[in-house]
Design brief:
The complex is a heterodimer of chains A (175) and B (124).
Chain A (H helix, E strand, L loop, with lengths): L1 E4 H16 L4 E7 L9 E9 L3 E7 L1 H12 L9 H22 L6 E3 L3 E4 L12 E8 L5 E8 L3 E4 L15
Parallel strand pairs in A: 1-9
Antiparallel strand pairs in A: 2-7, 3-4, 3-5, 3-6, 4-8, 7-8
Helix pairs in contact in A: 1-3, 2-3
Chain B lengths: L2 E6 L3 H13 L4 E7 L2 H10 L4 E4 L8 H9 L8 E6 L4 H10 L3 E4 L4 H12 L1
Parallel strand pairs in B: 1-2, 1-3, 3-4, 4-5
Classes of the chains: A alpha+beta (175), B alpha/beta (124).
């Protein structure tokens, strides 16, 4: 069982937003999910395989995706249909997946990331059985628009009891 | 001496970010070339004089590790400094990259300061 503390996960996601986008997301909840995350409009999916196996899905509305892409590029929000939005979503998803992989692959455990796949609208298929552990992190951008990070893992994920740093906005975790 | 830099990354967003951060460093940069994967990167090296490579790891066609190995297999490119910029930050991955001939490593996400610290030590 890979033990990851909730603050570790929050730091990983917020660190990406702070470093690459210059914004601090509000982190609302981490809870076990019993059904796959519905695509909010655009979703970036990155798998990992090896001694650990799973996928990470990052999804938000295309409106928020266009804003995030603009922040990454230090430009105005891009047109929602711009290819650069898909590219930026894939890169954010890639960085989130890399950070989560680093958390679940402790010691000499290794896993390899896949290239990100970006899906607009509609569903997506993950090659994982329903028995895989599934956890969802719910966050909001500064303007209140939500985004989600879902972790699907062959190895059950356990969350440590460490409380988050002062000032972090979270709710109690499911166990 | 002004240096030529090659950025190799399949993400156009990341190439722009790295290019922007490069311009914020104290490095004396003449030209910045870009490639979308390792194969394109090798093609650039065949045609251009490059002193520093900043390469992603996970890329289609020819990934960062294969690219580093290909560069180091050509003695004409021995002088080129290679810094990996990637999400693959595990110790084994770092050792694999260094073993293949990479000179340094920056883990995503990174700040302009992270990049500057890595690159100015390379250029010194």
């Amino acid at each position: 069982m890979a033990t990851v503390t909730a603050p570790d996960l929050y730091r990983a996601v917020s660190g990406i937003f702070q470093s690459m986008l210059g914004v601090q997301p509000h982190l609302h909840a981490l809870a076990r999910a019993h059904a796959p995350l519905v695509n909010q409009g655009i979703a970036a999916i990155v798998g990992y395989g090896g001694e650990r196996e799973g996928s990470v899905i990052f999804s938000c509305t295309t409106d928020l995706a266009a804003k995030l892409a603009g922040l990454m590029l230090m430009e105005e929000p891009l047109p929602q249909e711009d290819d650069a939005v898909d590219d930026a979503m894939g890169e954010i998803g890639n960085m989130i997946a890399g950070s989560i992989k680093s958390l679940v692959c402790v010691g000499k455990t290794e896993a390899q990331l896949t290239l990100p796949v970006v899906v607009r609208q509609g569903g997506y298929h993950l090659p994982h059985p329903s028995s895989y552990d599934r956890w969802r992190l719910t966050c909001t951008h500064a303007d209140g628009l939500p985004f989600y990070v879902e972790m699907v893992s062959r190895e059950p994920l356990a969350w440590g009891d460490e409380r988050p740093a002062a000032g972090a906005t979270i709710f109690p975790l499911g166990r | 001496m002004a240096i030529n830099v090659l950025i190799v990354d399949d993400s156009s967003t990341m190439r722009k970010i790295v290019q922007r951060n490069l311009k914020q460093t104290r490095l004396d940069i003449a030209e910045i070339f870009q490639a979308g994967d390792g194969q394109e990167g090798l093609a650039v090296l065949q045609a251009q004089q490059v002193h520093l490579i900043l390469s992603d790891w996970n890329m289609p066609n020819l990934d960062g590790l294969g690219f580093v190995q290909a560069v180091r297999a050509n003695t004409a490119w021995d002088h080129i400094q290679i810094v990996m910029i990637t999400t693959e930050g595990g110790e084994a991955k770092v050792q694999e990259a260094i073993g293949a001939g990479a000179n340094g490593y920056v883990k995503k996400p990174f700040t302009a300061d992270d990049l500057e610290a890595q690159l100015t030590s390379r250029a010194a």
